[in-house]
Amino acid sequence: MTSPLDAVDWPVVTDRLVLRRFEAADVPAIFAYRSSPAVAEWITSTSRDVESLAERFGDGPTAVVVELDGRVIGDLMVRVKDAYGQSEVIRAAAATEAELGWTFDPAHHGRGLATEAMGALVTICFDDLGLRRVVAACFAENEPSWRLMERLGMRREAHHVRDSLHRDRGWLDEYVYALLADEWRG
């Protein structure tokens, strides 16, 4: 399966991290932190075991792995999609934005690693993939996620009231953030 991420010259190296494409061999390390209750609290879906996570990740067309000193500490999602466009200009809206997501091992929280990794990912989206906009969403109660979006310079564009059903907490508010390429470069 082809992916827009195929256009990137992997790996991408930051000051402390290596970002690379997901490989099937990454699944056990990813499962180790994704199965932590602190992480599972906020991710879209949990996996019962390594095999079910491997099935969900499939060949990883949207997944990027974050390594610190050769160890997987996080996984990122880049889902390139079409922006809304009127029928006369819909082709120009094709593959112009991406939805971003992230999950990090809690053992590495509080050191700026997520900000560093996501900053590199945003750069990839705008410089390597030529996108014009990135978006991300989270439960409003997931303060570390929306704080990360704000550190990246993303703006809160929406506060949806009790529109997102959490598996344990019931209906919760959602925040939606976005950033344009020219804002990132400015």
Q: How can the largest sheet be summarized? A: 8 strands, mixed
Please report the first level of CATH classification, the CATH class.
Alpha Beta
Distance between the termini: 35 Å
State mean pLDDT (0 to 100 scale): 95
The Rg value, from CA coordinates, equals 16 Å
Side by side, the strands of the main sheet go: 1-2-3-4-5-6-8-7
Structural class by sheet pairing and helices: alpha+beta
Number of domains: 1
- In CATH terms, the superfamily is Gcn5-related N-acetyltransferase (GNAT)
Keywords: Transferase
Pfam families: Acetyltransf_3
GO molecular function: acyltransferase activity, transferring groups other than amino-acyl groups
Protein name: N-acetyltransferase
Description:
- It comes from Aeromicrobium chenweiae.
- This is N-acetyltransferase.
- It holds the Pfam family Acetyltransf_3.
- GO terms for molecular function: acyltransferase activity, transferring groups other than amino-acyl groups.
- The chain is an alpha+beta fold.
- It has a single domain, classed as Gcn5-related N-acetyltransferase (GNAT) (Aminopeptidase), CATH 3.40.630.
- It is 27% helix and 33% strand.
- The protein contains 6 helices and 8 strands.
- An 8-stranded mixed β-sheet has the order 1-2-3-4-5-6-8-7, sandwiched between helices.
- The mean pLDDT is 95.
